[in-house]
Amino acid sequence: MSQFWERYIRPGLSQVGRNLNLIGGNASGSMLWKRVTFLVATPAIALCMINAYRSKPGEQPRQPFVKYEHLRRRNKRFPWGDGERSLFHNPNANALTEGYEV
């Protein structure tokens, strides 16, 4: 772990202060952003992907439908289909004006 810290993390952190005052491109600045990309962005994307694959659509119970006057108003019909469903309508998750389809 100490070699990882000395080789990758510490040089990147020491360059942060110097690179904040730089205007324009620099080889040391590009190395900082390369390290940030591989050490911060890549693990963050991997964690988001794991979270997305772990959550199943059928695991969480659907909220009961309550017909409120201020929600799901259709002042103008949608120009596709029957005019009730939005362009990215999901029958399992999105309710129509009268309730869920499925």
Q: How many E strands? A: 0
Give the mean pLDDT: 81
Order of helices and strands: HH
How much helicity do the residues have?
Answer: 40-55%
Terminus-to-terminus distance: 52 Å
Based on Cα principal axes, name the global outline. Answer: elongated
Total number of distinct structural domains: 2
The assigned structural class equals: mainly alpha
GO biological process, one term: mitochondrial electron transport, cytochrome c to oxygen
Pathway: Energy metabolism; oxidative phosphorylation
EC number: 1.9.3.1
Subcellular location: Mitochondrion inner membrane
Task: Produce the secondary structure layout.
Blueprint: H1 2-20, H2 27-54
Helix pairs in contact: 1-2
Q: Can you describe this structure?
A:
One of its GO terms (cellular component) is mitochondrial inner membrane. Its main location: mitochondrion. Its EC number is 1.9.3.1. Keywords: Membrane, Mitochondrion, Mitochondrion inner membrane, Oxidoreductase, Transit peptide, Transmembrane, Transmembrane helix. It is a single-pass membrane protein. The protein is mostly helical and 102 residues long. It has two domains: 2-54, no CATH class; 63-102, Cytochrome c oxidase, subunit VIa (Cytochrome C Oxidase, Chain G, Irregular). The protein has two helices and no strands. It has helices at residues 2-20, 27-54. Helix 1 (2-20) packs across helix 2. The radius of gyration is 25 Å and the shape is elongated. It starts with a helix and ends in a 48-residue tail after the last helix. The mean pLDDT is 81.
Concise summary:
With 102 residues, the chain is mostly helical. The model has no long low-confidence stretch (mean pLDDT 81). Helix content is 46%, strand content 0%.
